[in-house]
Design brief:
The protein is of the alpha+beta class. It folds into 2 domains: 4-103, Helix Hairpins, CATH 1.10.287.40; 119-422, Bira Bifunctional Protein, Domain 2 (BirA Bifunctional Protein, domain 2, 2-Layer Sandwich). It has helices at residues 4-9, 11-20, 27-63, 67-103, 141-144, 152-159, 169-188, 202-207, 231-236, 294-311, 358-363, 388-399, and strands spanning 123-128, 150-151, 165-166, 192-193, 199-200, 219-220, 226-227, 243-245, 251-260, 279-289, 316-320, 332-340, 345-354, 366-368, 376-377, 379-387, 406-407, 421-422. A hairpin with a 4-residue loop joins strand 12 and strand 13. It is elongated and about 105 Å long.
Length: 425
């Protein structure tokens, strides 16, 4: 959500920032609507003030015995009482229209975000690890995974496409990955573990930016709630409608939750395998910070996610997303992409974004600076630390052996009861 004052004070700069995202100008249209809203609001306030003033004057006129003046004032007050409800309704409608227009505009990109139309404009910044050289053709996890307990057929029979059941050793490995991630983020990286709601109201998904634009990507329940597409929604909304003391910041939250996505915008992509599911688990990272703390928190979050990949010995690269590839709420995003041998490419496993005060304005989440009476909006950040299912895929493909078994990374051995190899069932 944007501050309307940005558009009022410098509409050209606002449109220029949107143009970097490849979007058309909006400042003139919103500015005109805002001007109408303010004009009606001013007329309403003036009308209320005049009604109160005239009402008092009636008594004064009566006390002076000036009946004609009193009657004229009564007529004026009556006319104002008839007109004011219309002005109030018009003012509410115009305010809602301005709000809705602002809510539909994505965040403005930070100055250092490269311009580009799509993922081709992303800039690689860092690589870690060397992709393994295989002495046999590496297979796709969807081909050898079923023998390890990755059951697509039974899941499809009960739930349809883009669902899977994990059985036996592979279920244990999935659990081990998730617990290792959660322990790492809480014990090594300073994140507070949260077990949050999976069902949330409209206000929560609006606050983090999924509504209204991306409703079709979510699952809606019969009682009007939404299944979370990511724990970012629940964790970020922990501070909605609050005023935090500056001394409490930064806050760092993490959660291991199921996530639910309709994948409406990804038709035909990754239809095979475990890469893109309607239901999956993810360890999410969220930070709530002051504007001055946000850059350091972003770096810390990136390092926290990278550390998991390095501990699991998975080659990856970090890219800075361009303006055309960033999400709706992001001002700057780093993607971590893990190496998948079967595809011979790096695939996204974590997106880590700083959102400025964009989400905070939608949630009315503020803090009070030390020694000040006023409040400011917090800055919010979020990222995956990591997506459990995609990490499982990366471990399967990078650790696969010619006989169909999979070597388990050493960091997970304590979580596997000492088991070091996953063997076909």
């Amino acid at each position: 959500m944007h501050d309307i004052r940005l558009i009022r004070d410098n509409p050209a700069a606002f449109d220029a920032a949107l143009a970097r995202r490849g979007l058309d100008p909006v400042a003139a249209a919103i500015g005109a609507q805002d001007a109408r809203w303010r004009a009606v609001s001013t007329a309403l306030q003036e009308g209320l003030a005049r009604r109160n003033e005239a009402s008092k004057a009636i008594g004064q006129a009566m006390a002076k015995g000036d009946g004609a003046a009193a009657e004229a004032l009564k007529a004026e007050v009556a006319a104002l009482k008839a007109r004011l409800p219309e002005l109030e309704a018009e003012e509410r409608a115009l305010a809602q229209q301005v709000h809705d227009q602002l809510a539909a505009i994505p965040n403005l990109p930070a100055a250092d975000v490269p311009e580009g139309a799509d993922e081709a404009g992303n800039v690689e910044q860092h690589r870690w690890g060397t992709p393994r050289e295989f002495d046999f053709p590496p297979r796709d996890h969807a081909d050898f995974g079923p023998a390890l307990g990755l059951d697509f057929e039974a899941a499809a029979a009960m739930s349809g496409a883009r669902f899977a059941a994990l059985r036996g050793g592979i279920a244990r490995l999935h659990r081990a990955i998730a617990q290792f991630m959660l322990d790492t983020q809480t014990m090594a990286n300073g994140y507070e573990e949260v077990n949050p709601p999976l069902l949330v109201r409209d206000e929560a998904v609006f606050g983090t930016g999924q509504l209204p634009k991306f409703a079709e990507d979510l699952f809606h329940t019969t009682d009007g709630r939404w299944l979370i597409p990511t724990a970012e929604v629940s964790l970020t909304n922990l501070v909605r409608e609050q005023i935090l003391p500056e001394s409490a910041l930064p806050l760092r939250f993490t959660a291991l939750t199921p996530c639910f996505r309709s994948e409406a915008g990804a038709a035909g992509r990754d239809t095979r395998g475990y890469i893109r599911q309607h239901q999956f688990e993810k360890v999410e990272l969220v930070a709530i910070a002051t504007p001055e703390q946000a850059a350091d928190e972003h770096a810390h979050m990136v390092a926290s996610a990278q550390g998991v990949l390095e501990a699991l010995e998975l080659p990856y690269r970090r890219v800075l997303l361009c303006t055309g590839d960033m999400g709706f709420t992001a001002a700057r995003t780093f993607d971590l992409e893990v190496w998948l041998p079967s595809q011979g490419v790096y695939r996204e496993i974590s997106s880590i974004s700083t959102c400025g005060d964009f989400q905070a304005r939608r949630m009315n989440a503020r803090y009070r600076p030390e020694g000040e009476k006023g409040t400011r909006f917090v800055h919010t950040l979020n990222g995956s630390g990591l997506a459990v299912g995609r990490t499982l895929v990366a471990i399967l493909e990078n650790g696969q052996q010619a006989d169909g078994s999979v070597v388990i990374p050493a960091a997970l051995h304590p979580y596997m009861g000492g088991r070091t190899v996953l063997e076909p069932r």
